[in-house]
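Problem 3 from the worked examples.
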Amino acid sequence: MIDRQPRPARPAARRLALAVLLAVVALSVLYVVLPAVAGLEQTWSRVAEGNGWWLIGAGAFEVLSFLSYVIAFHGVFGAGATPVGWRVSYRITMAGVVATRLLATAGAGGIALTVWALDRLGMERREIASRISVFLVLLYGLYMAALVGGGVGLGGGLLPGPAPFGLTVVPALFGAAVITAALTAALLSTDLDAAISRFRTSSGRAARWEGAVGTASATIAVGVRGAISLTATRSPAVLGALGWWVFDIGVLLACLRAFGGDPEISVVFMAYFVGMLANTLPVPGGIGAVDGGMIGALIGFGVDGGLAIVAVLSYRLFAFWLPVLPGAIAYVQLLRERPASG
């Protein structure tokens, strides 16, 4: 009698193949169709004519951005019951880059890979959830603060540059709303263990929804309190998180300078963060969405359309492709790590 084993499910492989296909299509649109539609058929020749020193500087800024990311990660995960060393911190962050490029939606791919890697190290699920919450709140708390600060600064005339309402006041209000919601969660939410316990013991659709919301709120609260604690103790994680954003903005600024642009730094700063809002869309690596958001924001601030397109496409070459090879190597190294026994 033939022993019929169930065939292994292939949803993960199909999602990966679909993500790669979408990435290829999006890149084709970005680097072939978009320049043609915009009347920039000579985009690639214009890229070749960019100032080499500024482009080298852009590459250096991208390297510094990812080094800062590793510092931030180690600052959050380097202590506790299951500390993560510098080597593993580097591997997880760089491998997460590849996962984020293929499975986007606000970095969901990178988060999933981080959970998997930390679980293999033997870290308890509750500690994983708590530390990832702290890490994300630290990173995106700075992001929301930047939307508020940049929007108010430009909208109120405190910073130099034009101030379109939709690109300054609206993002500032959005950032303020997110910050307010997170702080409210930190003030009102109960203990995370209690919330998880209620969720597990709840029955009925309404009760489970209530339990899920309570657990999410408690998790955010843990992240907010942890991020505030790291800031109060002047943890290197805070400088790392700040460096992650600042140096990446430096890449965009250097690309603009490389092609003769000279917009105000405050304008580049705000256009960058407004464009990054599109990273929440389920597009691999944010390809197309982030690019279009940044290009549109720069044009909205008065930057020449041709300059905006060639600068943002060059920025994305550094931001998207530069980390891919070391990220793939780091992923293979993580696979070879021996899982914790347990």
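Problem 4, a separate protein:
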Amino acid sequence: MKYLPSFKLWFSQGPDDPRQELVAGRHFHLGLGAFGRLFWANPSRRLLDLLRIAMSVYVVDRLVRRRQQAQQGRWFRSLKLSVEVQEPDFWQNGDVLGTLTECLEFLSEDGWDVTFLKDERDPPPRERFLPGENPFVANPPLVCLSSGGLDSAAGLGVRMAQNSNRPVIPVTVWHQAKQRELVERQYELLRKRYDGAVIHPMIVKSAMLWDSELNGWKQELSQRCRSFLFAAVGSVVAAMSGVAAVEVFESGVGAINLPLLAGMVGSKATRGSHPHFLRLMSRLVSLAVGREIVFHLPFLEKTKGQVVGQAAALGLQELARATVSCVHYPLHVQTNKQCGLCPACIFRRQAMAVAGVEENGVYKHNLFGLDHENGQIPEDDLEYLKAFLLQVVNLGPLQVGGFVPQPVRRHLFATNVVSTEESMVPFLHLFSRYRDEWLSIAAEGKYCGWAWANLLAPV
């Protein structure tokens, strides 16, 4: 099976929005050939249903533009989606549908009304091509999500060192031309570093076919539900491998994603690695598979700088440099890999500085450079850097066992990261370390003459 079997979906936004019909293979596709090559089998009917649902959610999330609602201060959409599946009764079950809806609404902060129709076409081909057992029964692999970013590459390098004799299946759902080349280069570096390491890349392509009737549609750029598709593919790999966990290599600061600015909440902040989303996704996948599969954040209590520092201590500096974090590259930035000014670039630079990993000529704008270089950057382009610095200032009074700033407490409880005061303690340590990392960088930056460091460094 090369692509997800053909099926139809229908969607609309609100009662006055016309109902749209799309067909897999004509308007979009999800490549499944990697499953057959690795497992000599197709996913089961129910797992194929999960992939249909995930791809449908991703497609609708891209095609329905958000409309600003000033009274709510957020982009809210009321989405109706119907999907053809093989087992509609299962997906319409109260617990399954409730978990699916809760998962999507937490991830995107939209309202989702999802229904299912029976696909009356012939069922997909048989699951196993050749007789025999699952090739991974004797030595269960480490299954993880791999985006090509700094956290996922550094985390994979660390976890491979901790699981030296275990095969690895890193899962990538790629939607940009350079993403496949990026992760394959990272796997080459890991094989070189860990001689004899067994890596089975699962690289699945998702694509919108814009040369079809979709020509002329404008995309929604936030695309919060891409993480749902990514996690669904990872869970299918775990199910077919026989393992009980999918690892997500996001640092605690990135996963919890404390808002940089007061308005950066809900759909204006990504929750793709948030602990509560991964708990909901674990519950949904476990129901679909019929056994427990959990998404695990092994670096939840570490800063990004600590994760990269662990990788650097293992001699993986080149791997860290062979990653891309920028939200604009390669769509808007072609001459440099990364812009240097977006939140992802700033977060990356902070982590690389903490880990002591040098980068030269990577960024269009060098914030961690000489004063005269910073002076060339327009003031408006420093908005995100100032937001990071303001967040550090707001974390200043934080004391473990003492004062906790209200925005920190509110975010941890409101987004279900914690449920008790006691469970909050590890994350207070986390944000204290993160604050101190920034203060140390700013102190050095003031000495080096970085203009922005004077906003934060102590006199």
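Solution to problem 4. The chain has two domains: 8-68+75-127+138-296, 326-455. Residues 8-68+75-127+138-296 form a domain with the Rossmann fold fold (CATH 3.40.50).
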